[in-house]
Design brief:
The protein has helices at 10-19, 36-44, 58-71, 89-94, 109-117, 129-136, 160-171, 185-193, 203-206, 215-223, 250-257, 319-328, and strands at residues 25-27, 49-52, 76-81, 99-103, 121-126, 142-146, 152-153, 176-179, 198-201, 229-232, 244-247, 272-276, 282-284, 295-297. The chain is an alpha/beta fold and 330 residues long. The chain folds into two domains: 10-211 and 319-328, Aldolase class I (TIM Barrel, Alpha-Beta Barrel), CATH 3.20.20.70; 215-301, no CATH class. An eight-stranded parallel β-sheet has the order 1-9-8-6-5-4-3-2. Helix 2 packs parallel to helix 3 (58-71) and helix 6 (129-136) packs parallel to helix 7 (160-171). The radius of gyration is 19 Å and the shape is globular.
């Protein structure tokens, strides 16, 4: 197999062979924007797609997996955040998922046995040498190393380059995908050259035509810069104390101006700022919900998550056009 832009390392070729990929690029499981159409587009572009299922009902999880499988032969994974019970895991297995990825925790022996009985490959997200050692003891098929440049809920507390060095040192022959602030060819090259087998992109895929993100959210990603992001625990309604990186918005600015008060003392915390026009759900300020296409109201007061690679996001292309462009850029 030949590539138009660069020669790939043995680690990248191994990762691509395991998952039958054309490019060593993985979609981040960005909850909300990442529904079946985005995963399908990513897979059909030769990359690894993602379905975040932590907050999706078992029935809907089954449907989404079946929808992706009906429209692509590419590889995609179901992601579960282990700060929460993976209620949809059994339905994901029943739907025929072939890869499952975990973040914010380590899967139990019961879960691992279930995956192995069904011949499902497993990935685990880590952010340090110690985390990698614990994850490797579970014999994953790959690791994701996240750095604090990432958008959304950030498991990491150190820069990606440093974390990646630590993780690669102990991972040996287990492929490691680098995640955090990666949005262009330059950053792809950087982390592949540092030894990553693949790179993970989140915000860059959110700002595509197939993403289910709200149009105002996509526009904000194009119009903003890395310096407009903040790393905090501001949006903690629904996921207390979880660090995240987002664009400054009215909610953060109010909280910051008040001196970062704790829950119960935050300005405007009982305000209803938005709702979902499909099911009528109401969203209060400080909710960790993401502005998606069915959201109405002051949508940008919710969670406009963004990584530090947004300087490179200057348009909203199709996934196919994006991947083609990334791979031929010098």
């Amino acid at each position: 197999m030949t590539f138009s832009r660069r020669n790939l390392s043995a680690a990248s070729l191994k990762f691509m062979d395991i998952f039958q990929l054309k490019y060593p690029i993985v979609q981040a499981p960005t909850d909300g924007p990442a529904t079946a159409p985005l995963a399908i587009a990513v897979c059909n572009a030769g990359c690894m797609g993602a379905l975040p299922l932590t907050w999706v009902s078992p029935e809907m999880s089954y449907q989404r997996i079946q929808e992706v499988k009906a429209h692509t032969k590419g590889t995609f994974f179901a992601n579960f955040v282990l700060n929460f019970i993976p209620d949809a895991l059994d339905q994901a297995i029943a739907a025929g998922i072939e890869v499952v990825q975990f973040s914010w925790g380590l899967p139990s022996s019961y879960i691992i046995d279930k995956l192995r009985r069904n011949r499902i490959k497993m990935g685990i997200q880590v952010a340090s040498r110690q985390g990698a050692i614990q994850a490797l003891a579970l014999e994953p098929d790959y690791l994701v190393c996240q750095g604090m440049e990432a958008g959304g809920h950030v498991q990491a507390a150190q820069p990606l380059a440093r974390a990646l060095q630590e993780v690669l040192y102990v991972a040996q022959d287990i492929p490691v995908a680098a995640s955090g602030g990666i949005s262009d060819a330059k950053s792809i090259d950087k982390y592949l050259d540092l030894g990553a087998a693949a790179v993970v992109m989140g915000s860059r895929f959110v700002a595509t035509q197939e993403s289910y993100a709200h149009p105002l959210y996509k526009k904000a990603l194009v119009d903003s810069a890395a310096e407009d992001t903040v790393y905090s625990v501001c949006l903690n309604r629904g996921w207390p104390n979880a660090t995240h990186r987002m664009l400054r918005n009215s909610t953060f600015n109010m909280w910051e101006a008040a001196g970062y008060p704790q829950a119960g003392y935050r300005p405007g915390e009982n305000d209803i700022v938005a709702q979902d026009e499909l099911d009528g759900s109401l969203f209060q300020r400080y909710s960790n919900n993401v502005p998606i296409q069915s959201t109405t109201g002051d949508v940008m007061a919710l969670g406009p998550y963004a990584g530090m690679g947004i300087d490179a996001i200057q348009d909203i292309p199709t996934v196919e056009a994006l991947i083609t462009r990334l791979w031929i850029e010098d």
